[in-house]
Amino acid sequence: MSETPTTITPRERLRRLPGRAVGMLLVWFVVTEADIPSLVIGVPIALAAATLSVALQPRSLSGVYLPGAIRFARFFAVNSVLGGIDVAFRALGPRMRLAPAIVHYPLRISGSFPRVFFANTISMLPGTLSSRLTDDTVEVHVLDCTRPVIEDLAKVEERVADLFGAQLSPHEGGGVL
Amino acid sequence: MPWQTVIDVITYALFAASGFFFLAGSVGLVRFPDVYTRLHALTKSDNLGLGLASTGLALQSGSWIVAAKLLLIWMIVIVAGATACYLVANSARNSGIEPWTGGDR
């Protein structure tokens, strides 16, 4: 809907190559636990992986905004702990408090990667699980529909948008299917 | 108290918490009523259980590079877990499995 697909020119792909190569090399470095001789293989592999990654990059661009990424990491850490505690107590409690429902949530965030990222984040947070992602909505299975689910999802979406350095308009719509 | 003892105590606490969440996730898998609620139990508790276990292991390793490797493994498992979870939930939806909404148990 609000998606503005930006086509990447070959030049732009080329410009992304050095950064991607450094990233891949860093992963190699970590995986081999800083084994210097292994770089004989690691450097060509990292270059090949970076080239492939840049070549296969989807059309819509979505760069990560570092301060937003730090805020997102903090938000994600706190909420995955809450999510784990929430589901643990529901599972272990003598009377499992469950009021499941499927809600649909109209997406504000644009770009295919941010949307998939948002859908995956939903599944990791307390009481929500994404079950279908379409062009303009995400369908979410919730454990407890007595909670303000839509408002919670709007907050998560704002965090994800912040991670990609985007601003969102106020949320409207959505509800139990 | 020597530093290593402090590290060890924290590690034991992290492992105990990790084990608790993995256990709770497995209990949820057995007790929850349908495919969607079971997925909730698995994804959340695995994410948290593995996060706690890797933090404990990172403390024991005493090495930055091993800690970074554990963090990388945790992130890859989260992405794989969330993706697998979506695939299961989505195919359940597409094959018309209605979510459990209460009633007699």
How would you describe the shape of chain B? elongated
Radius of gyration of chain B: 18 Å
**Morphology call of chain A:** globular
CATH level-1 class of the largest domain in chain A: Alpha Beta
Number of domains of chain B: 1
The biggest beta sheet of chain B reads:
none
Proper CATH architecture of the largest domain in chain A: 2-Layer Sandwich
The fraction of residues in strands of chain B falls at under 5%
SSE class of chain B: mainly alpha
- Widest sheet of chain A: strand order? 2-3-1-4
Averaged pLDDT of chain B? 92
Please tell me how large the radius of gyration of chain A is.
20 Å
Give the helix proportion of chain A (percent range).
Answer: 40-55%
Element pattern of chain B in H and E? HHH
The overall number of domains of chain A is: 2
What is the terminal separation of chain A in angstroms?
Answer: 21 Å
Taking pLDDT < 50 over at least 5 consecutive residues as the criterion, the unreliable ranges of chain B are none
Largest interface, chains and sizes: A-B, 38 and 43 residues
How many helices of chain B in DSSP terms?
A: 3
Question: Structural class of the secondary elements of chain A?
Answer: alpha+beta
Write the layout of secondary structure elements.
The complex is a heterodimer of chains A (177) and B (105).
Chain A (H helix, E strand, L loop, with lengths): L9 H22 L7 H18 L9 H27 L8 E6 L5 H13 L3 E6 L3 E6 L6 H15 L11 E2 L1
Antiparallel strand pairs in A: 1-3, 1-4, 2-3
Helix pairs in contact in A: 1-2, 3-5, 4-5
Chain B lengths: L2 H29 L3 H27 L2 H31 L11
